[in-house]
Amino acid sequence: MTLLAVERMKLFTTRSPWWCMIVALALTVGFGALYAATLPAEFTFDVAATQSGGQLGMMVIMVLAALAVTTEYRFGTIKATFQAAPNRTAVMLAKSTVVTALAFVVGEIAAFAAWGVSYLISGNEVLALDTSQEWVQLTGLGLVYAGAALYALAVGMLVRQSAGAISLVLVWALLVESLVQLLPRVGNDLYDWMPFAAATRFLMQSGGAETSMSSQLPEPPIGPWASLVYFLAIGVVLLVLGIVTVRQRDA
């Protein structure tokens, strides 16, 4: 509990996490509201569409998570941390727990805020939460944000430099996975197993019914809940690799 309290204080006593949370909420809610206000009447506006800004918000959360690790290396405070708590695994697990919990909370607030604002703007009864699928599409955003934070934390532990870690996680999520589809013959098959593609399909196709956004996605090789487990499992593996690296390297 002491390590968790320390990591919580370190996280919230700097400005960057607060700005990242504000920007993540603003992007998720803002794009959902903008979509609700500008979508032509002939197009279907459903619960999944209210989360159109969720990916941008997730990118900001990944920046927050990467900075939570790399900032300590940048300013050398990680040395004092390891001197006070020599168990590096416990320190990094505490930091990861605090950051992923924060990412989950921000994701849930952003999802329901985006849905609520969109509902007020559009007044569309289609946005009523009547099915389990629609509830999962909202509550699932927090799980995806937490998983994305795991990826960024792991990369931060491996790279240690803020610019490098942030560049890697953003380029991978925004560019590399999409470019994989351009590979001849195997591109689409490989894309099906990309982690962030799996996370997107979990949000869009959870519950078994097809939505206006999920209908545009290819048939996934595994189901939505299995896609979420796959996404989170890769994040956990990367985090373990990151912690092992932290234990072996000099601070």
Give the end-to-end Cα distance, rounded to a whole number of Å: 23 Å
Range of strand content = under 5%
Number of helices: 10
Share of helical residues: over 70%
Low-pLDDT runs: 207-217
Q: What structural category arises from helix and sheet content?
A: mainly alpha
Number of strand elements: 0
Number of domains: 1
Q: Whole-number average pLDDT? A: 87
Major sheet characteristics: none
Shape: globular
Radius of gyration from the CA trace?
A: 19 Å
Element order: H for helix, E for strand: HHHHHHHHHH
Q: How would you characterize the overall build of this protein?
A:
This protein has ten helices and no strands. With 251 residues, the chain is mainly α. It has one domain (2-248). Helix 5 (88-122) runs antiparallel to helix 6. The longest helix has 35 residues, at 88-122. The chain starts with a helix and ends with a helix. Pfam families: ABC2_membrane_4.
